[in-house]
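Researcher: I'm preparing a figure for a lab meeting and need a structural model of a single chain. I don't have an experimental structure, so a prediction will have to do for now. The sequence is pasted below. Please return the structure as tokens so I can convert it later.
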Amino acid sequence: MAVSNIPLPPTLDIKNGNIMNNLNLFKKAWAHYEVATGLDSQPHNKRISNLMLTIGNDAFKFYERLTLNQTQKLTTGNILKALEDHLKPKINVTYERYVFHSRRQQANEPFADFLAKLRRLVVTCSFGSYDNEFLKDGIVSY
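Model: Understood. Here is the structure written out token by token.
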């Protein structure tokens, strides 16, 4: 077995900061690590073992508590997707719509900035194909 001088990615922090940002950064670092070390061409069981040794104690304990089917356990990609699915915060659509409908353009706020903020807010409102209609309503309201 060849030993690599390439450092391991930082562990996955699931307790501090923006957890989804931490997960996304870890996934990117992990993908680069697999390629740089040649791990991406190894059997899945070896890749999974390396992932489990790399994610850190907190993330490993969290993973161990998940109820995953056999398909979810087959690849590192599936495991990381399962972690993402369970770590992703649930969106309270009612609250998100309240925030969207409450947003008003400030007195000195450029229209382009106001529109950009409304576009970011409408994404979490689950308006479906009516996003643009509600966006127009948000612009002309009040």
